[in-house]
């Protein structure tokens, strides 16, 4: 843990004279006074560094990377960063190219670590559209229980904390899947292991942050067909500030609220405290 994080975890950081510990962390206004009170020596007043905490609705077809892939015309997520974003802005957690939904963007490296480390137990929720035309039935309770119990993948056991069918129209079904890991294309591989394809995979919640527009299943199926056309690519553009910050549309962003940032920090700090790892970083 770097010096600043260690001071925070050990309860030596104060904001306007109030201790900033596991019950308070994250956002500090530019008008507030931040200080560190070491075990010995004088109190240190620290400059407040402005950090950026954003949520972004990554469109399908955008690669979660800062550099273009060789021989690929597909856009990267950094091409979608808001106009005027600082160079230190980066994504905290990935979504594969064919998936869409919430991605956190920040300049705060410690928050990135907390948001992506499995030990913080910050769940990710996905809405998945799959075809049921094989037998005209939604995934059975037995299949859902297999996902909850865990399925063996090439990189180890993968388990869903929650798995349920939330919609079915006779041809397609929408599933709600909650996981606490973020392995490469993990949810897709889990569904494939129980016999189902993924037509749309949309992350609706990440690290306690939510707020995206959920399309109808018919719209999801139509969009799936569009993206499967040979040579189809989307055009990247700087993200627009959402008019409704509680319901982002693809390509929109919104700032995180202080409680959302604090939730990530608090869970990360509790993880460190529980593991007794204050001196391991």
UniProtKB/TrEMBL annotation:
Residue span, Pseudouridine synthase RsuA/RluA-like domain: 57-192
Protein name: Pseudouridine synthase RsuA/RluA-like domain-containing protein
Family of the protein in this entry: Belongs to the pseudouridine synthase RsuA family.
Pfam families, per the entry: PseudoU_synth_2
PANTHER family: PSEUDOURIDINE SYNTHASE FAMILY PROTEIN-RELATED, RNA-BINDING S4 DOMAIN-CONTAINING PROTEIN
Origin species: Polarella glacialis
Keyword set includes Transcription: no
InterPro entries from the UniProt entry: PsdUridine_s_RsuA/RluB/E/F_cat, PsdUridine_synth_cat_dom_sf, PsdUridine_synth_RsuA/RluA, PsdUridine_synth_RsuA/RluB_CS, RsuA_PseudoU_synthase, TruA/RsuA/RluB/E/F_N
GO annotation, biological process: pseudouridine synthesis; rRNA processing
Keyword Isomerase listed: yes
Domain of life: Eukaryota
Gene Ontology molecular function, alphabetical: pseudouridine synthase activity; RNA binding
